[in-house]
Design a protein that fits this description.
homotetramer, 466 residues, alpha/beta, TIM Barrel, 9-stranded mixed beta sheet, 8-stranded parallel beta sheet, binds zinc ion
Chain lengths: 466, 466, 466, 466
């Protein structure tokens, strides 16, 4: 009788600390053994010459999240999570949004229902757009208890932004409840000021989106939220740190002893504001907020990853189609940037790009790659040690990589429901050929085999990073 | 026939650069000659053994400025400027306030009329409490043209605060018009959050005013306004920098190449939050905003003066009586700090305290004292070289100091219209015995002899610091 | 037939990344499996309620190393490594010293022979006291090839110091050969200057040792060696960073992109210069170089550990007896500090003190403890993944800790050959009850059972930290 | 009877603080009056439309200082000081060098005798090449008493360098005697290491001089001397700070509260290492130590001047002819850089280049120009207020500038005894047309009229900067 449901043999296993040769024995969806020549599995995978890494955790994804206006989110949970698995990601954290004037619990219920078709395990951040006292005191305690352990707030975007005063009350609630506050930090009035001036002067092409929200807009607000967190003694994560000056504010906060964590996203490491200036509306494919910055900012972000200032890298997957009635081009060739939907898709591309640009190019070592794609997010968002590592007792969420394989990223490879990727033509070294969720293959040799609905909701615990 | 109206003989003259023995020949209210054994004056003053310094410029004073509620400003321009001259100050810049919904020009007219009785020359900052577009585009150009060359904005205080969006429009107007923006920078919602929590918990004594607005509240906002100034490429002065962390934000801005100037006030150099904790309501005598900080902040501010990060020191003279129906104690012994009027008097004490704590104690040299009490303010606020130095052609605004004289500051010495001073009993070395405005004595051996109405309005030019 | 020679069951395993419940299956001295309910072992240890941690690596130890003058090293390899295992340490790196004018190869041969009686595995740094060209070009290549992968140089100490010019040639050789340079960095002439002045003035008690080598002496030299490493593009480790200013220099170097690693030692985290001022010669028990600093430096060092600036903590075990003809007191009660032998013993106390002060007091988490006591040293000194972690294929060097046990450190507990410990009476929470080297118990329930000679020489590879 | 020997009328006078219109009345070589319409002078100069500035103080000049080897110093005191006055400089501080094994007093006597033919006032730094105890205790007290108030030490250059230990003793002597230590700071062994490697590899052209002493060599040593000054609590000036990293070390020292002053030189503001790479031996015209750096360093130095980190700018005038038997080319076209004499001439070009690049281009204002060319050096080297400013009682050392005049610098204009200038063809705006020393014209409309021997020795007092 086989000892394990599955054994992955002869691979090189990596954690955020170590790299070692070991077979992995899996049963009941968990890693039950790491060893040499372990007993037989009902099924076996030969990973000779391959890396076996923790499946990725993408802690910042907008999947099947409704969008304002005529545009639509291109992905369902079924399509989005298929794409995630193609890139080696096995857990996503999405967003449940409160409607203005509405209930957070209702928002959670609605979004959670959408995730029924997820192919991989998932959790939610709760977007508080209207943190009325009764929401904070009556709804949130139960929701946190149910494992919705993080709040997302916006300090810009007309439909979602809350005031500094509201943000303070959200932070205070997070402190009481042991939840983590994640923040989209840009100075709203400054963006409005710039936008008004640019539009008045006729600067309305996609690239002017980057002019309307330059680094100073973000750096100001990153500092502000760090100070608010300092004032209330509450941990926060600053989302999508896009360049050097913002990262410096994070680092200064950390050096004051604050629990402030920084996240960046794939696009800030490989695209720049110049991409927004491609001919016609091509630039719109790179339009997101914060805006991509300069080459020097990419280097600075890698350095901040190396220094540990920025602890995880996500996709901020926010898919709008490019063409069609709900796409980025729906407003016409001359649409001003103020009408163009924000956000880029990136679930599948995240880990291959980070592996290639990071590990293959020698910027980071393999344990650091594991840390920034999986382990740190697991720790910060209350999923560790069940998720984010390869250890006895952890879920067998794994990605089996060919570290040498050279791949050109294309739309067809990505397997999401979109019609484009900003990374079209990007060449990478290293590719996750097989992906498993709780021991069950969801991608086999690049083919999606995971079933919609296989994914489970993840109630999350408190953050456990010191 | 005498060459000069007045000759000051045998004194030691100091400027922001030099210290030298010279007679000063004055005619027509101006310094016409500096020399050895210059020709006779119609009148002569023997300054043997004395320092002859530029009269002080106190660029941040609330004199005869109406206050909200039942409290009243203790000083008229006649009383306030008498007190100023006692302490060697010969120029004040006060404030003209726009009423919410009202006209800035009307505010200027009203406040300017009050200053008719000033004994010394004066200018005004314009407090913009409601910067509607028509104010910025229709009223301000003419007012700036008339020499009202600086705007004051508040980012806190319910009656005066404007939003960040409004502040940006004020900054943009200042840039167009060549005016300087001065800012009271504290994070309003954070103060509200703390205040609410403190009041709810019964922490309402004067010292809790300091708890409601700790350093983080100011440091956040100082950074924010520096970033706003950076975004719009406009110079600013940050008012009343109260301690180390705020000064660090100023310094960081300067190191990014910004024209951001820092001001501190006498009280932040010699009082601390502990003074607010004196028995009964005694602490209210030290209550101002920002709140006094810690001993270490005092040392840090001196260091920042030494490094040039903070360029001038003012009184922020804001006099409310202690007793009486309009005084700080009018709300009863148990009045919560939220009801207590903000602000401390300090026109007379400023220069003697700075001389004593700075020069006599060896923290700064005499040229630096001249710079931070007179020359730098003159340059920044468009009064140089007419004011702020001793040079040929400059107004003969002078203070003749006995550098050795030891004086204990008392209410009676101060000669303002108030009933207390926070510096009661403070001992200083060095005292300005004689003060002259445009060559005319306004204090002689400590006796006020300047006449109400002698002071003239100073139309100011643009700042001239590189 | 049992699957394993030994199984450690039901413990909580920790690595530098993860903490998880697992049994450990050991055979042939290696970890062959980590799992739940793994097959039987010929022998089993029940670790219920215990932590199973990687055995410590103490990469800076002076064991059985001859001392100049009448004093003697108290420990033999047999006694020193016994003490190491008592504290959970399973690998030591000692020093092989070149005699001035002599051969490095001869020094290595001599010291290696002494280590024959080691109870645990060991390696050597080579102390180059006379780096003549022929040493660098003829001897070192072969020695590095044999696994002596690191050079130690002193920039102070009359008998050992080399010049900056010599240090540069050592660094250049290290770069060619792929070896790491470890440096004792203090400004020699400054120590001489201070010492001469102190002795002339009669300040000769043990505490004046700290006066003769204050922080500035070390901070200068740390910066200097970082710049030399920068100039030659060669990685270095700075030994025994004793406080804030030196650590800041390390951090600045790291931020310039240099591969400069910082080490600190137990004593700098728990003793201060005041300990040197204990009555009589008691202070001599704390006398080492660099000298212990202030309380604030201890806090700064913990912060630098938290920030990753300082990556490993060693004992700098340098044992001289206190009494007897070869002890610290051999020169009489009035012996000037210049005659007192430097160095403190600390092999056993290192890990328990770090566990207690770090993990139990909440300054660091358990993975960080593993990193700074074992994993990072293994990576830096070419022992990873064979040593320094718990992973499949790694040597089964393990310490089984009772995390709750409260222990008062005493001489008898330490089990070295010395007559005192500077940590006498120090109370710790957490203690390693059982220690194994390559699967063989060397301490069982606090009793040393490892055999002299069981330890093996560790040929080391190049450093593998990015 | 005229009131004054000389009156300079209708000019615009500038000090380090102020700019104002005034006539200057001069008698007995001193400024006796500054005023409007002052009494007549025996002679009058019309300065309408001109600036009247303090004559420059060049506190770092090698004039008629013997050189090692076959090369010779191109200038005598007569020729060098003529050139100085052409550029508006009225005071020089040269060097008196102790011979190795010889007496400092003898060196002073010898160098002082050479200066008999100086056309302008002068002082000396004493170069201590052999600070034996008897020199420090027996010779220096008297020499300092005579007004030789500063010591110069070299930490590199084979013929002049002293050890760190010797430097410490010099610093200690300076502290006792109230003298200032000026330091040439480069890491000697590192230069040797690089040089040896470069020469071995055949990199021996003039540009490789810059490769042999890159910024790291200087930055290391600047930090080292700052730490030594910190350790001994003694003020120092770091000579010729050549770029950003060294200036940062100065700034860090200042921020630790140290009295460390930084000097830079004209050439570091306008030449770069690329100039050393000009064809043939042309590059040798720019060869000096430290070596010129990059464009970015020039910008950084201006910023450090603006921040006050670097307080004065000198020429480090060190003239070797280019051609002829004693010139830089005397060793042949293929001479390795190791044989080429160091140093560039620059007495005349200093102030015009600083005025043009600084004031005319808007990098600094006029008072700052005065400060960095005259006032700060006067204060630091004990010449203030006699020299370095325009004030009553000060020596009438003046330069009358046409601020608009455009001049192309050429050899003939410079009027020194050299055969080239590194600034040949450099275009400047602003030129000092008339120069006066103690009220006596030494340059009139560009023509040298000062007499050899007119200059006087300046006994100097202690530094008086706080
Ligand atoms: Zn966002
Ligand atoms: Zn997002
Ligand atoms: Zn204010
Ligand atoms: Zn005010
Ligand atoms: Zn050492
Ligand atoms: Zn050691
Ligand atoms: Zn030099
Ligand atoms: Zn020189």
């Amino acid at each position: 009788m086989p000892d394990f449901d599955l054994v992955i043999r002869h691979g090189t296993v990596a954690t955020a600390s170590d790299v070692f040769a070991a077979d992995i024995g899996i049963a009941g969806g968990q890693v039950l053994a790491l060893g040499r020549n372990i007993g037989p599995g009902a099924r076996e995978i030969d990973a000779t010459g391959k890396l076996v890494l923790p499946g990725g955790i993408d802690s910042h994804t907008h999947i099947e999240e409704p969008r304002p206006g005529p545009t639509a989110n291109a992905d369902s949970f079924a399509s989005g999570t298929a794409s995630a698995t193609v890139g080696g990601t096995t857990t996503v954290i999405g967003f449940a949004r409160q409607a203005r004037g509405g209930s957070m619990a209702a928002g959670v219920a609605e979004h959670r229902a959408r995730a029924e078709q997820s192919r991989i395990d998932y959790g939610f951040h709760m977007i508080l757009t209207d943190p009325r006292p009764e929401i904070l005191t009556e709804e949130l305690p139960a929701l946190v208890e149910q494992g919705y352990r993080s709040f997302k707030i916006f300090l810009t975007y007309s439909g979602a932004r809350i005031t500094d005063g509201e943000a303070l009350r959200v932070m205070a609630a997070a402190r009481r409840l042991g939840a983590l506050v994640c923040i989209h930090a840009e100075h709203h009035e400054l963006i409005e000021f710039y936008t008004e001036a640019l539009v008045a002067a006729g600067y309305t092409r996609p690239v002017h989106h980057a002019w309307a929200k330059p680094m100073v807009v973000e750096a100001e607000c990153v500092h502000r939220v760090c100070r608010m967190a300092e004032a209330l003694d509450v941990p926060i994560q600053v989302f999508h740190v896009s360049g050097e000056e913002s990262a410096e504010e994070i680092e200064r906060a950390q050096r004051r002893g604050l629990k402030v964590w920084g996240e960046t996203c794939t696009q800030y490491l490989v695209t720049t504001a110049e991409d927004l200036d491609r001919p016609g509306l091509e630039g719109a494919k790179f339009l997101c907020s914060p805006a991509p910055r300069a080459k020097a900012d990419q280097a600075a972000l890698w350095e901040m990853i190396r220094r540990g200032v920025i602890g995880n890298v996500t996709s901020d997957h926010a898919p709008t189609r490019f063409g069609g009635p709900n796409g980025k081009t729906a407003f016409g060739e001359d649409a001003p940037f103020t009408k163009l939907p924000n956000g880029v898709p990136g679930l599948a591309a995240r880990m291959p790009i980070l592996f290639s640009e990071g590990v293959a190019k020698g910027r980071i070592d393999l344990p650091t790659f594991v840390a920034i794609t999986a382990t740190n997010a697991a720790k910060l968002f209350g999923l560790h040690p069940k998720k984010g590592t390869i250890a006895v007792g952890a879920d067998a969420d794994l990605a089996i990589w060919d570290p040498e394989r050279r791949v050109t990223i294309t739309r067809s490879l990505i397997q999401d429901a979109n019609d484009h990727t900003p990374y079209e033509g990007f060449e990478v070294t290293g590719w996750p050929e097989t992906t498993l969720v709780r021991g069950t293959p969801v991608v086999e040799n690049g083919r999606v085999v995971g079933a919609p609905g296989f994914g489970q909701f993840l109630p999350r615990g408190p953050y456990d990073l010191i």
